[in-house]
Amino acid sequence: MKRILVTGGAGFVGSHLCERLLNEGNEVICLDNYFTGSKQNIEHLMDHHYFELVRHDIINPYMIEVDEIYNLACPASPVHYQYNPIKTIKTSVMGAINMLGLAKRVGAKILQASTSEVYGDPSVHPQPESYWGNVNPIGLRSCYDEGKRCAETLFMDYHKQNEVDVKIIRIFNTYGPRMHPQDGRVVSNFIMQALKGDDITIFGEGTQTRSFQFVDDLVEGMIRMMSSRDGFVGPVNIGNPVEFTMLELAQHVIALTNSKSKIIHLPLPQDDPMQRQPNIDLAKKELNDWEPNVHLKEGLGKTIAYFDELIKANKA
Ligand code: NAD
Ligand code: UDP
């Protein structure tokens, strides 16, 4: 049995990861400050004998004896990370320093949840890990993009200078049950709008693309990365390479919910990337032929069912 710390464990991705790690027979310590996560996301784990919940902010040091650390604490949706940009960058940078310091002291292996945002608005398509990105250092997204870039630098430097056993994954757009209904991300927005019969808000023409990964595929990739061969540090892209325009996504959501909602167009936010698609060759090679298995329609179906229940229970 391993003892595993999951920072940001009460968030969307973290809650699924905690669940999977517990199911595999590990002891899990879930650390969160509940900025965007909630106890509701993990309430089904509370009675588990090997589950522990800690309210803590990772901008402050935290001490515990663990074998592995998954560092997920950081708001992920543009609405949430732009709410308090200084706090966002502190979480990424000071949080990384604190968790790397902990890993160094106790000899734990540590995985960083980095992001496709490190590629910014990419001029190379699809994006391989070798691409250095096209990031605005002073824009609305910079607190998140540059915070995550700096965290990657810290992970590599702790690895090179202090031999900390690090693993870095770059996560591309991920969706699924337990996304925050008001997080402003496109999948949750479109589903909530469709279920409520509100207008579906497409920003810009809707020709920008994203590739959407269902959360179970991400969790599988995270666990494989944590147990990947010694010396394989990454960064490695974890995402679904099947690309859709936002217009296509809206049409799928309308069809799957039988909604009468109309599509409307709103202005495109500043620095909104035009396209985003992972090259996953490295993940396939290093992570035992890992690739996403869940098709968009299947994943959307499960996510729609989740939001439908939230609305019916007056929780959204
Ligand atoms: P989320 O907002 O649901 O989860 C983040 C969790 O971290 C929340 O529970 C929040 O309360 C917690 N948190 C935030 N700041 C904290 C702090 N200072 N101290 C302690 N806890 C803190 O987001 P998510 O979608 O679950 O994302 C999880 C991780 O994956 C993030 O690091 C994010 O950058 C990364 N990621 C996610 C996506 C995606 O599409 N979901 C894409 C790329 C990267
Ligand atoms: N988007 C949209 N309508 C919405 C929310 C988002 O058209 O209600 C667009 C947004 O402009 C972006 C894409 O959907 O081009 C993905 O946005 P999201 O915030 O989900 O993720 P990110 O931009 O970080 O990939």
TrEMBL record:
Residues 4-239 form the NAD-dependent epimerase/dehydratase domain. Keywords: Cytoplasm, Decarboxylase, Lyase, NAD. GO terms for cellular component: cytoplasm. It holds the Pfam family Epimerase. GO terms for molecular function: dTDP-glucose 4,6-dehydratase activity; NAD+ binding; UDP-glucuronate decarboxylase activity. Its EC number is 4.2.1.46. InterPro entries: Epimerase_deHydtase, NAD(P)-bd_dom_sf, UXS-like. The keyword Phosphoprotein does not apply. This is dTDP-glucose 4,6-dehydratase. It comes from Winogradskyella psychrotolerans RS-3. The lineage of its organism: Bacteria, Pseudomonadati, Bacteroidota, Flavobacteriia, Flavobacteriales.
